[in-house]
Design brief:
The structure holds two protein chains of two kinds. Chain A is mainly alpha-helical. Chain A contains two helices and no strands. The longest helix of chain A has 136 residues. By secondary structure, chain B is α+β, with helices and mostly antiparallel strands. The chains are: A mainly alpha, B alpha+beta.
């Protein structure tokens, strides 16, 4: 060994020193760094897992939200349809009622007009009758002479005799 | 329409007169209205006829009333015999007016209560 220029003692001490240095570095540097790396890796993995869960939750939430929106949309549509149907039905009812009322009013007006027309006609006929009778009276008063008057008296006497005889 | 001598009144007079025995003894006043003065023969005939109705002698009181137009109007006691043209024309007037009203009443009933045929 000496021929090669190697000092065995020094070599041994160097080996021991190197071993001590390795042991020292293992405990002082390698283990903490490794622990830190593992911890960081775990945190990263945890973060990734959390992100994945969050992503799933977000997807679920979006799905639920979409379903809720769809349901709300259907309900709103149904409500609008119901309101539209109810409004249409109410409109039809109002129209039917208005038509019925208008029909009744027209009928009443027609009846009233016919009544007034008939009353006017009967008043006119009564006037005609009254005027005719008055004219007949005046005509008879002017036209009846003594002979006809006495004929009427004679007829009265004959009728009275016949009634008495019956 | 009552266009002849008022028979009902004559019947009433006849039946009413039969119930009064005193009327056979004392003349009953008969108020007679005519359009022209009566001749004596008409007065006699009228007295004769009315005495039959009254059941005894009657005393005529004749009034000339042109408003009756023609014919004879007689009142004996509370009975009246109306054989005047005015009454007959008035009866005709009432009859015609009643017919007008009856026609309108029927039409008004048809208007107020239209039949199913009329509604169709």
């Amino acid at each position: 060994m000496q021929k090669l220029g190697i000092d065995l003692g020094l070599l041994l001490s160097q080996i021991v020193n190197f071993g001590l240095m390795v042991v020292l570095l293992y405990f002082v540097l390698y283990k903490p760094i490794l622990a830190r790396l593992q911890s960081r890796s775990q945190r990263i993995q945890q973060g990734l897992d959390d992100a994945e869960r969050a992503k799933q939750m977000l997807a679920e939430a979006e799905t639920r939200a979409q379903e809720e929106i769809e349901r709300a949309r259907r309900e709103a549509h149904e409500i609008v349809e119901q309101a539209t149907r109810a409004g249409e039905q109410q409109r039809q009812e109002i129209l039917a009622q208005a038509r019925q009322e208008a029909h009744v009013l027209i009928q009443r007006a027609q009846q009233q007009a016919q009544r007034e027309l008939l009353e006017g006609q009967v008043a006119l006929r009564q006037d005609v009758v009254n005027l005719s009778i008055a004219a007949a009276m005046r005509l008879l008063q002017a036209e009846l002479d003594d002979e006809k008057h006495h004929a009427l008296v004679q007829r009265f006497i004959e009728e009275a005799e016949q009634l008495r005889g019956a | 329409m009552d266009d002849s001598l008022s028979e009902k009144t004559v019947s009433n007079l006849s039946s009413g007169a039969a119930e009064g025995p005193d009327e056979a003894t004392f003349p009953v006043l008969a108020l007679v209205r005519v359009a022209v003065p009566l001749r004596p023969d008409e007065k006699e005939a009228l007295s004769r006829v009315l005495s039959r109705f009254a059941g005894g002698p009657v005393e005529l009181k004749v009034e000339v009333t042109p408003e009756i137009i023609g014919g004879v109007w007689v009142r004996v006691g509370d009975k009246v015999i109306d054989g005047t043209l005015r009454r007959r024309l008035e009866a005709l007037r009432q009859h015609l007016i009643a017919q007008c009203r009856a026609l309108v009443t029927d039409r008004l009933n048809e208007i107020s209560h239209p039949t199913a045929e009329g509604q169709a």
